[in-house]
Amino acid sequence: xxxxxxxxxxxxxxxxxxxALSGLALTGLAWMILHYANxxxxxxxxxxxxxxxxxxxxxxxxxxxxxxxGVFLGQHVPAGWRSGRNLATGLSVAVLFAALMSTALVLYYxxxxxxxxxxxxxxxxxxxxxILAVPLHVARRRARRALTRASGAKPDRIDADTADV
Length: 165
Known about the structure:
Elements: E1 2-3, H1 11-37, H2 48-74, H3 76-83, H4 87-109, H5 113-151, E2 158-159
Helix pairs in contact: 1-2, 1-5, 4-5
């Protein structure tokens, strides 16, 4: 399979990551809207069952995203680092995702309520940051490709099955 990008993973892997991240964004935003629209952590009228369902689905998608990110860590990230392209946005995405995974572990395993409250707020803010960072990283890649095409330069080609990326 030949790919027109210096630093790419197969389309199915990229699609898996985008689908998982989109699902995480949707379930996380839905949880936040429902949570804060109903009085935060307190209140007798809170839709606990629906909040719980969003949280469970969000957690499952988190595992799927972690696997998809693992693929990128092995191929996309080292090649991107060597190429020097989009380092700021790429590092932002990587740091945000690592921090989100860390806060998710605290939320899942910690029994200390003050730590969980801090981790919950941090997780929500980091998630909002990732919702902004991933499209920015992708848009920068697409803009670079468009400039290459507009200049008439021949795009870099690699064989994704055999290249050392």
